[in-house]
């Protein structure tokens, strides 16, 4: 597998291409190595947003592998941060819940996605939705800002996932929570998939084991961790055969390996109150 910076460049380049296309153009791509990650991600993993409140067709590029905003327990007035915000799809759905008194901040490291999302927000007149250019491993957000963090099939594209969860913990307010959809594995990827840069950008080869993923969340300091939704992803043979030989393909299909979309919830604990001497100002009352 490539270095972290090289992987980021691959993802950035692929998603810059996607930013210039419509959802229909993305979904109509062929299968196989010529189409790369876009076919894997959009045509196979995505779920239908069209029935959700706040849905904006121009912001839906068919990306993602779940519906994290549906599970995120967002409330009116909340500050929501969307990691890997793309053209604004999840951010605008979140905004429909936070309302005019809340705020939504989208973060993306693809300049063309940021430009498209900002254009969509301006067209809609959403002045409380902001899109910031930045890396999820070093988020351009101050600590203790967000009530809720959401993300849709993006953290698996981050080389240092532990760092991404640590940053998520940092920007959440004490008592805040996240709901993210992502790709995880049961079993070990065959080498042909594991070393493929295109399958990395397609959210497969960068995925880690489910237990490892959940362990990173716990190590970052989150509690009340639970899986809100899980479904198996079926990758067609015509895509797998590009990366796997006959023996590897048979082993893959035997059920020893599973590629899953999960939506995970976790909370940042409320900081414990510091014990104060009894007679500090405001401490004692009679």
Task: Describe what this molecule looks like in 3D.
- By secondary structure, this protein is an alpha/beta fold.
- The protein has a single domain (4-234, 249-267), classed as Vaccinia Virus protein VP39 (Rossmann fold, 3-Layer(aba) Sandwich).
- 37% of the residues lie in helices and 21% in strands.
- It has helices spanning 4-19, 23-27, 37-45, 68-71, 89-98, 111-124, 161-171, 191-194, 197-201, 210-219, 237-243, 246-256; strands spanning 79-83, 103-108, 129-133, 146-152, 172-186, 208-209, 223-233, 258-267.
- Strands 1, 2, 3, 4, 5, 6, 7 and 8 form an eight-stranded mixed beta sheet that branches.
- Helix 6 links the parallel strand 2 (103-108) and strand 3 (129-133).
- 46% of the residues are buried.
């Amino acid at each position: 597998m490539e270095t972290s910076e090289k992987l980021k460049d691959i993802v950035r380049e692929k998603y810059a291409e996607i930013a210039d296309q419509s959802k229909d153009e993305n979904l109509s791509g062929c299968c196989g190595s010529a189409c790369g990650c876009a076919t894997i991600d959009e045509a196979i993993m995505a779920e239908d947003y069209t029935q959700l409140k706040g849905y904006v067709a121009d912001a839906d590029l068919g990306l993602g592998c779940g519906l994290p905003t549906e599970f995120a327990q967002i409330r009116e007035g909340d500050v929501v941060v969307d990691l890997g915000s793309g053209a604004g799809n999840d951010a605008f759905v979140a905004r429909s819940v936070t309302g005019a008194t809340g705020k939504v901040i989208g973060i993306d490291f693809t300049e063309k996605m940021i430009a498209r999302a900002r254009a969509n927000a301006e067209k809609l007149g959403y002045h409380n939705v902001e899109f910031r250019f930045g890396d999820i491993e070093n988020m351009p957000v101050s600590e203790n800002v967000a009530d809720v963090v959401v993300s849709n099939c993006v953290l698996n594209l981050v080389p240092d996932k532990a760092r991404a969860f640590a940053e998520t913990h940092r920007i959440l307010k004490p008592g805040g929570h996240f709901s993210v959809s992502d790709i995880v594995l049961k079993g070990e990827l065959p080498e042909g998939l594991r070393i493929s840069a295109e399958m990395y950008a397609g959210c497969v080869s960068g995925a880690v084991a489910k237990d490892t993923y959940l362990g990173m969340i716990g190590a970052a300091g989150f509690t009340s961790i639970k899986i809100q939704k899980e479904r198996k992803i079926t990758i067609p043979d015509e895509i797998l055969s590009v990366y796997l030989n006959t023996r590897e393909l048979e082993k893959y299909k035997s059920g020893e390996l599973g590629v899953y979309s999960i939506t995970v919830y976790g909370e940042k604990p409320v900081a414990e109150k510091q014990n104060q001497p009894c007679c500090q100002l405001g401490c004692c009352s009679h």
